[in-house]
Amino acid sequence: MITKFLSSSNTLEVISSNTLEVWISRVVYFNKKQNCCLNAFLLLNIMPEKIHNQTSKCVEDSCEFNFNEQFRFHDIDVTQLDRYTLQIKLIKHNKIKKFKNKVIGEAQIPITDLSCSSEESNIYFDLFWHFKSKTSLGSINITLCHQAATSKLNVIINQAKSLPKFSNCYVTVSLFREERIEMKSTSIKYNFRDPIFNESLEFDISTDISNPLSVYTMVVTVNNSIVLGKDRVIGHVIFSLLSPQKSAVTHWQLVQDSPHQSHPEWRTLLDPNEI
């Protein structure tokens, strides 16, 4: 995943018919604005009932939190695993009582995506940083179609609207695979707030039952092309089952569940400073 996200690793194991064991080894905090250190701890829940609320130790004055802690969730109904989600929050701890603790990263991981055998399984995932934008960054209309029979993913960038200002804008689509990123771009539309692209970008993507579309992450980014200087990111749409944009999660799941069909949707842009 993108390195500006909060990244974590853990080991998970089902140790009996109704007990789930999670080992949180390390969380790395990436802040592109400054090299800051925090006091932080983890809060874990099994959703949707928020059962087995568990808290880690607090690691102080660091940006790499080596927790190395084990958590056990008992009385898990293994016949209802598709209902459960493991929620993990990274929380900034304020020693001064008048200031509240603050959630700086969160992930909700379907239990069915994790190992449900008696063997240990190492996984890595991203904690997304959430807070609300003060201004609208606009939205983008995207059509997705998964041609499973031919191992293709078609991404049609239709148009964007209500961008913050007139821009020389273009769209990049980044497909994140296991160890590499494939990126494709549209042409530049000069001096528009509501640019129309109608451009199709195609990716080769092989999927099957053990490797469904949902294991991939795709990020659609609207950029402002700067003639003299570095291009500026206006906003993102993150297609992933762990995306902070719930509507994008639904869209991504629909594309997987209904292959060979076109799924056009408007998606609101996410501020690049908020992930």
TrEMBL record:
Record-linked PROSITE patterns: C2
Organism domain of life: Eukaryota
Domain C2 as annotated: residue spans: 1-124, 136-254
InterPro entries for this protein: C2_dom, C2_domain_sf
Entry-linked SUPFAM superfamilies: C2 domain (Calcium/lipid-binding domain, CaLB) (SSF49562)
Record Pfam families: C2
PANTHER family assigned: SYNAPTOTAGMIN
Annotated protein name in UniProt: Synaptotagmin-11-like
Gene name of the record: LOC136090226
